[in-house]
Amino acid sequence: MDGASFGAARAGTAFQPVEFLREPQTILRVTSWIFAIVVFGSIVNEGYVNHENPELHCVFNKNESACNYGITIGLIAFLACIAFFIVDIYFPQISSVKDRKRVVLLDMGFSGFWAFLWFVSFCFLANQWQRTESNASTAQGGDAARAAIAFSFFSIISWVGLTIKALQRYRLGTDMSLFATDNFDTSGTSGYPGYPTGSGVETTETYQSPPFTETLDTSPKGYQLPAY
């Protein structure tokens, strides 16, 4: 099952851990989670140094905003990955078409926005690191600074990948009319549209558009092949 089929999973299907962990979207989600840990963890642990005084300064050109930005973006990305990971697990259980559409749009919008914020983080941290004076204190926190910069760049790629996967899932839903099932009458009082007038088919069965990806029955009960 590829990423597209995951996006079109049937409502109510059982959760399959092995298949879920093989999904490209899941791999990207876990990768982004790890990258976020590296960025904010590096800054928190070794991103503040002192030189000839007990007061700690941000290793990025003593710019506290640079450290705070990297920590904030990384921490929120870390929490968001966990939240969306849980949503991905329960996504097949969401029966409401509108709720599924909202989840996919939220994933796509957040991932795209965070990819942009990671781009800002990479440019900001790299710029401040270039302006940092070389001394014993900066050498001490140099590895952490370079790690934060490198994994900010890697995070751009992973979050762009998540945005693309969400976009593919949304397009799949649109192309298969998965988000348009609310256009059908779900009250159970109208018959299944699609039979041409004068086809000679008569049935008392009524049909509802099932949630999201349920396949409509093309061979309704009561229909018999004409005998020749």
UniProtKB/TrEMBL annotation:
PROSITE patterns: MARVEL. Keywords: Membrane, Transmembrane, Transmembrane helix. Pfam families: MARVEL. The keyword Membrane applies. GO terms for cellular component: neuromuscular junction; synaptic vesicle membrane. Residues 20-171 form the MARVEL domain. Residues 200-218 have a biased composition (Polar residues). The keyword RNA-binding does not apply. The chain crosses the membrane at residues 30-49, 69-91, 103-127, 147-167. It is found in: Membrane. It is a multi-pass membrane protein. Residues 190-228 are annotated as: Disordered. Belongs to the synaptogyrin family. This is Synaptogyrin. It comes from Pleurodeles waltl.
